[in-house]
Amino acid sequence: MSRKMIIVTSILLATGIILSACGSAVTPQSQTGAGASTPLPAGSVQVTGAGATFPLPVYSQWTYAYQYVDPSVVINYNGVGSGAGKTAILNNTVDFAGSDSLLNADQYTQGVDLQMYPMLAGAVVPVYNIAFQAVPTPAAGAAAVSLPKLILDRQSLVDIYDGKVTKWNDPEIVSLNPGLANFLPGTAITTVHRSDGSGTTEIFTKALTSFSPDWTAGGAQSVQWPGNGLGGKGNAGVAAAVINTPNSIGYVELAYAISNSMTYAQMVNKAGKTITANGASVEAAMTEFANSFTPQLTATIVDGTSDGAWPITGYTYIILHTSTMIDCVKAQKILEFLKWAQTDAGAQTAATNLGYSVLPDVVRTNVLAKLAQVTCNGQPVLMP
Amino acid sequence: MLKQLKSLSEKDWRVRIQRALHHGDRPWQGLLILFSGVVIVLMLVIGGMLWVKSSGSRNAFGLSFLAPTANPNWDPVNNLFQAWPFLYGTLVTSLFAILFALPIGIGIAIFLAELCPPWLRTPLTWLVELLAAIPSVVYGLWGIFVFLPKVVAPIGNFLADTLGRVPLAGALFTGPIPASGASRLAASLILTIMIVPTIAAVSRDVFLAIPPSQREAAKALGATEWETIWQVLIPYGRSGLLGAIILGLGRALGETMAVTMVIGNSIQGGISLLSAGYSMASIIANEFAESVSQLHTDALIEIGLVLFVITLLLNILARFLIWRVARQAPQEARS
To answer: How crowded is residue B107: how many other Cβ atoms within 10 Å of its Cβ?
Structure first.
């Protein structure tokens, strides 16, 4: 409350003084100390970010809420896609980028000081639409017979997408689903994938690559899909294709599957445990890989070996220039925002409510430590 | 009078200055040349940009990029790209869309211009033009959720059972169609709906522009309504009707969103109209923002270049056809 008062008062004081951001850019704001600095007029710092659409819903909420935390900064995040975001930060047309996919070697040589910071994680889930056969009709008034959820293991998911398993009553699937043995139809499986390049596809195909050497198409935002599967544009396109095609299987983000009440399969993970995708199982995957971060702070967290880990998970990252940001005020505002997003309880709850998994403490500490290393004009931007 | 004024102006320099100042012809002409020049420059700049930016892909694959192939590669992970499935998808869906839309569009135009009772004419014209105003993404959504499962899938199954059994031509109709209906046929039918208003509106204007004397002459010779339309009006308006077709085809070739949403986006569809396919505009829309590598981007730009060239060639062909038809028309009418 008192902080808000101070901000409001200082805004009033600062009104009329046209203090441009450029003027104060020469000396890092942090040098004067966070508390003692004169707050800038409301909306005087414009920060632009662009990139992945996967975290767009939560980034929108964060940037909106942050106006009330620090009125001097206006943050715009445009969901243009991870690839376009990476190109934008390389060309310095945005202040920060969001990406589900990693920078490649070329991009690191072009932008030497680029650094990725994990922000959130998400799960990708196989969604299916099986026309179960011979389901007993419930007696009048009784509730419909509820069949157990489909269970797939790592190999069978690869085999389905590879075209080796072509029917739902294939022994490989039946043996995993004894409860469904009498109901799985002997009809052809239609596979559905994302037609647009996306981080979701990258997480899914990286997981398939890790699941089995039989998957040869590789893992990337778009791959050459084996077989004659259908491509749907965006999560919505995949969902529509699955809903409209009996006996089909597709993959969407967990958040999307939940908000659209789609039925998604359980997976048998590397440890042999049957796992449901949810916040806890994604967090288990993040925790397991907490120590396998590269110096660029990236980690592939698919196919974990721990008991509770959901095998198809991935981080979404923010990309920043760590030493060549020119406008130090802006740099400070960006870092303060990211730190707030990672440490503020409300911000974290907002993410969880939207179906994302927030970082476990061990990873968050790592990210915050890396954020503190960002410099501007040779000076650290964030003061501890 | 005019001669007098002219001679006067040539003698009197004051009048000449006045003419130069008050007369807007010269500046107006210059302005118009400038505007048309902008169009030409724009075309050259776009074409040149596509050519330059696609150099990586052109150098890597050469002409094999466009060659027809039964097992096409579009593999961003291993950097192997072939444009054939997209080229085929765009051409075949546009062609069939024109085949379907032509009789419907011209039929609507004939009805509106010749046979329609006056009280129905305005609302019907208005409705047809409204069809053209619906955004393509709306067509796509309606296609996914209603048109494909309810209409296209049954039609596809019917075609697979009938035409699919015909030798040779049956290869175009081998089923089964995907249960969701997503296929080249779906794209053709959605495109048909989208280009019918264009063809109908332009053809209607063509028929309305035919002088009444033509109709009266035909009827005076004892021609029925049908004979008048078929033997007099359509030949008379041929070049205009051709223009209508070209306009429709142009729209079909470039349509992106609706096609992307209903075509199925699969590169392994063979040649059948009933299997899922891909189009050039769709692959660019799908993968450009998230391209995996530089070569991937270059290949997508080269597809853009191919689409650009096809559209250009088509327009040149259309000009040529219209010019020929327009030259032939009077002779044939006499014979």
So the answer is: 14
Q: Are A199 and A101 spatial neighbours (Cβ–Cβ below 8 Å)? A: yes
Measured over all CA atoms, what is the biggest interatomic distance in chain A, rounded to whole angstroms? 78
B78–A218 C-beta distance less than 8 A: yes
CB atoms near residue B225 (< 10 Å): 12
- A221 pLDDT tier (thresholds 50, 70, 90): confident
The total of other beta-carbon atoms located within 10 Å of residue B305's CB is 20
pLDDT at A18: 38
Are the Cβ atoms of A224 and B149 closer than 8 angstroms? no
Angle, CA of A262, A267 and A273, to the nearest 5°: 140
CB contact under 8 A, B76 and A223: yes
Q: Give B146 to chain A, closest Cα distance, Å.
A: 10
Residue A119: name the closest of A343, A377, A383 by CA.
A343
- Out of A82, A227, A230, closest to residue B178 by CB: A230
pTM for the structure as a whole: 0.79
Give phi and psi for B37, each to the nearest 5: -60, -40
In sequence order, what are the residues at sequence separation of 6 or more whose Cβ sits closer than 8 angstroms to the Cβ of residue B119?
A: none
Cβ distance A224 to B276 less than 8 Å, yes or no, reads no
Upstream peptide bond of B176 is cis (omega within 30 degrees of 0)? yes
Decide if domain B54-334 falls under CATH 1.10.3720.10. yes
DSSP state letters, B142-156: HIIIIIIIIIIHHHH
Distance in angstroms (rounded) separating the CA atoms of residues B333 and B335: 6
- C-alpha to C-alpha distance for B292 and B289, rounded to whole angstroms: 9
Q: Which of B265, B290, B295, B300 should be substituted to probe chain A, the one whose Cβ sees the most A Cβ atoms within 10 Å?
A: B290
Half-sphere exposure (CA, 13 Å, Cβ side) for B253? 20
Please name which of A269, A278, A277, A272 lies closest in space to residue A303, comparing C-alpha atoms. Answer: A269
Among A81, A218, A229, whose Cβ lies nearest the Cβ of B266? A229
How is residue B265 annotated by DSSP? -
Contact B289 A229 (CB under 8 A): no
The answer to whether the Cβ–Cβ distance between A244 and B275 falls below 8 Å is no
φ, ψ for residue A193, nearest 5 deg: -135, 170
Specify the pairing of strand A73-79 against strand A45-51. parallel
Shortest CA gap A117–chain B (Å): 20
Whether A224 and chain B come into contact, CB under 8 Å, resolves to yes
Compare all CA atoms of chain B with the CA of A231 and give the residue at the minimum distance.
B265
Interval B261-272: pLDDT, tens: 999 888 887 888
pLDDT tens readout for residues B64-101:
898 888 888 898 888 899 999 999 999 999 999 999 99
In which residue are the tokens 């609302």 written?
Answer: B123
Q: Phi/psi of residue B263, each to 5°?
A: -85, -15
Q: Which domains does chain A have, with CATH numbers?
A: 3-31+40-122+315-380 (3.40.190.10), 124-313 (3.40.190.10)
